[in-house]
Amino acid sequence: MAEWIRLAEASEMKVGEARRFVVGNQAIALFRLADGFFAIGDRCSHAEASLAESDVDPEAGEVACHRHGARFDIRTGKNLSLPATRPVPRFPVRVVDGQVEVAIE
Ligand code: FES
């Protein structure tokens, strides 16, 4: 069963901002877009670079890996361009009492 983990104060993150968190053995990239917060795995599926430390395009809802440029959909984790050929995991996110929480299995 999923466990909800508090990651951040919602008001502390601006649109287009990303942060990296490690929960247990899971690295998580948390993003704020205009329509809310989204969390995906923070290891690029190509060669494990941090997506939270990569270039965010908030209008497109995409992040471009800083190492070799693969793009991912921030809302779904879907890989959108080479050299990545696999998606990254996506985690459910909610905001409770101003705190951003992510669900981890
Ligand atoms: S590590 Fe991300 S594109 Fe290569």
Compact description:
This protein is mainly β. It contains no helices and ten strands. The chain has a single domain, classed as Rieske Iron-sulfur Protein (3-layer Sandwich), CATH 2.102.10.10.
Furnish the topology, listing elements before pairings.
Layout: E1 3-9, E2 18-23, E3 26-33, E4 36-41, E5 55-57, E6 62-64, E7 71-73, E8 90-91, E9 93-96, E10 99-104
Antiparallel strand pairs: 1-10, 2-3, 3-4, 4-8, 5-6, 6-7, 9-10
Describe what this molecule looks like in 3D:
This protein has one domain (3-104): 3-layer Sandwich (Rieske Iron-sulfur Protein), CATH 2.102.10. Helix content is 0%, strand content 46%. It contains no helices and 10 strands. The chain has strands spanning 3-9, 18-23, 26-33, 36-41, 55-57, 62-64, 71-73, 90-91, 93-96, 99-104. The strands form 3 sheets. The protein has a 4-stranded antiparallel beta sheet with strand order 2-3-4-8, with no helix packed on it. A 3-stranded antiparallel beta sheet has the order 1-10-9, with no helix packed on it. It is globular, with a radius of gyration of 13 Å. The mean pLDDT is 97. The structure holds FE2/S2 (inorganic) cluster.
Question: What are the salient characteristics of this protein?
Answer:
0% helix; three-stranded antiparallel sheet; four-stranded antiparallel sheet; 10 strands; Rieske Iron-sulfur Protein; 105 residues; globular; mainly beta; 46% strand; binds FE2/S2 (inorganic) cluster
